[in-house]
Amino acid sequence: MIKTVHTAPYQDQKPGTSGLRKKVPVFAQENYAENFIQSIFDSLEGFEGKTLVIGGDGRYYNREVIQKAIKMAAAAGFGKVMVGKGGILSTPAASNIIRKYHAFGGIILSASHNPGGPTEDFGIKYNIGNGGPAPEKITDAIFTRSKVIDTYKIADVADVDLDALGSFKVAGMQVEVIDPVADYADLMEQLFDFPAIRALIASGVHVAMDSMGAVTGPYAKEIFEERLGAPEGSVRNFTPLPDFGGHHPDPNLVHAKDLYDDVMSKDGPHFGAASDGDGDRNMIVGKGMFVTPSDSLAIIAANATVAPGYAKGIAGIARSMPTSAAADRVAEKLGIGMYETPTGWKFFGNLMDAGKVTVCGEESFGTGSDHVREKDGLWAILFWLNIMAARNEGVAEIVRKHWAEYGRNYYSRHDYEEVNTEAANNLMAALREKLATLPGKTFGSLKVSAADDFAYHDPIDGSVSKNQGIRILFEGGSRIVLRLSGTGTSGATIRVYVERYEPDPAKHGIDTQEALADLIAIADEISELKKRTGRDKPSVIT
Ligand code: VG1
Ligand code: CO
């Protein structure tokens, strides 16, 4: 019943910031997905008889690859596969299932916020037994294996029925089709004060949650409309669609603009939230106030004890390097540890496992905690509602008071997408060459205090990750960061992150792009971005 198939290796299966992401036609090449899945199994040890969790964000090609993964897990010797009904598991829910049921690991099928469909994006990622993304040591081993693989094993059996809950055997391996939502919703109910949030909603606070045609729909329906009593219709675009309705399921001011405009309108909702393709990102908007993800991390950390799951306080905070330093000020005030890691959730796992940090965040609309080992969109949204209920204040009031107390970190990210790869690499190389000459130089009123290519020394396992982004730091706390995306699937994406710290509350009402205009111009001057890429403006500003 177990078949050994001869295959030829592909040379391009290098996992990026969050797993392997390619266009569907690339994944649909002969044995492409199989090669990668077998390379994952070949890079692991000691899983015989153990449990593997499998699920995805429901995008195009999800079901096909889930069938392959189940049959290959059986052939590899796993004892059991737990798979979400319909092949659905949000990324944070998958992380929770791995932890709760002590699985060996999990395979998550997602390309997150990227569009889905026959010519759009797909992705495969492996998570380890702590529920978090595999560390670089494992992803490097997978890539090395994928370049030489010549056979894979698969059970030669019919497709399994993913659409009914239940348990059955596939080539001697147990398969359990589970409810994707229940365990996750229970976890949220333990962490947050549901009666208080329920009362907030019952008092007339109008909440709008946009699932963007992606995986959080069923989760949000259960949590907001069933458990928290929000009126039907509070959750929008709640049916996970293989092509997300043709949209980018990316919760930001560009792709979730309808929701933003609705919240900003006179009679619109008081609180708006959205999440991405696989449910790990979040966007928070209140009347007259968009909350930057960097501020959201700081505000959640500063108010954490209002939520029952965090009543004892938080051990520490971690943020990715490009994320603003707003959370650093909170950590300082609380007298707890603050850690700066490279981009991508895989770097937070060790810190959480060691009990050094409780709350983590990235500027890219990602916030989470040690309740799982992934960022978690609905978790962040519920945290905001819990804070609003506890403080009896709206989003704008909470944010303004936070700035008044800690100062405001004006922050923005400019993305230049699908840039010519060679031009992008040359730009970064030229910038690296310049780094040593920058300190002491003055640009307008700003003086460079330091410039480097960020390297991370993991304090727990001692591993070193180099070339994680160029940092140009100015006296007074302003900063420019440039790095190349590790999740794109065509050409290169250059990300430019700019930040300016403003302690004076009288100057907290300036438009963000205006407040950062000088830094944006300096970033272009130093990197020669416009000249080298031929672009005169970013593709996306967040
Ligand atoms: C982007 C974000 C990063 C995030 C990653 C995965 O990576 O910048 O912060 O962790 O996406 O998020 P990059 O390398 O393109 O900048 V998700 O929601 O796409 O899994
Ligand atoms: Co995501």
UniProtKB/TrEMBL annotation:
<keyword id="KW-0460">Magnesium</keyword>
<comment type="similarity">
    <text>Belongs to the phosphohexose mutase family.</text>
</comment>
<dbReference type="InterPro" id="IPR005846">
    <property type="entry name" value="A-D-PHexomutase_a/b/a-III"/>
</dbReference>
<keyword id="KW-0413">Isomerase</keyword>
<feature type="domain" description="Alpha-D-phosphohexomutase alpha/beta/alpha">
    <location>
        <begin position="13"/>
        <end position="150"/>
    </location>
</feature>
<dbReference type="Pfam" id="PF24947">
    <property type="entry name" value="PGM1_C_vert_fung"/>
</dbReference>
<dbReference type="InterPro" id="IPR045244">
    <property type="entry name" value="PGM"/>
</dbReference>
<dbReference type="Pfam" id="PF02879">
    <property type="entry name" value="PGM_PMM_II"/>
</dbReference>
<dbReference type="InterPro" id="IPR016055">
    <property type="entry name" value="A-D-PHexomutase_a/b/a-I/II/III"/>
</dbReference>
<dbReference type="InterPro" id="IPR005841">
    <property type="entry name" value="Alpha-D-phosphohexomutase_SF"/>
</dbReference>
<dbReference type="InterPro" id="IPR016066">
    <property type="entry name" value="A-D-PHexomutase_CS"/>
</dbReference>
<dbReference type="GO" id="GO:0004614">
    <property type="term" value="F:phosphoglucomutase activity"/>
</dbReference>
<keyword id="KW-0479">Metal-binding</keyword>
<protein>
    <recommendedName>
        <fullName>phosphoglucomutase (alpha-D-glucose-1,6-bisphosphate-dependent)</fullName>
        <ecNumber>5.4.2.2</ecNumber>
    </recommendedName>
</protein>
<dbReference type="InterPro" id="IPR036900">
    <property type="entry name" value="A-D-PHexomutase_C_sf"/>
</dbReference>
<dbReference type="InterPro" id="IPR005844">
    <property type="entry name" value="A-D-PHexomutase_a/b/a-I"/>
</dbReference>
<dbReference type="Pfam" id="PF02878">
    <property type="entry name" value="PGM_PMM_I"/>
</dbReference>
<feature type="domain" description="Alpha-D-phosphohexomutase alpha/beta/alpha">
    <location>
        <begin position="183"/>
        <end position="285"/>
    </location>
</feature>
<dbReference type="InterPro" id="IPR005845">
    <property type="entry name" value="A-D-PHexomutase_a/b/a-II"/>
</dbReference>
<dbReference type="Pfam" id="PF02880">
    <property type="entry name" value="PGM_PMM_III"/>
</dbReference>
<keyword id="KW-0597">Phosphoprotein</keyword>
<feature type="domain" description="Alpha-D-phosphohexomutase alpha/beta/alpha">
    <location>
        <begin position="294"/>
        <end position="406"/>
    </location>
</feature>
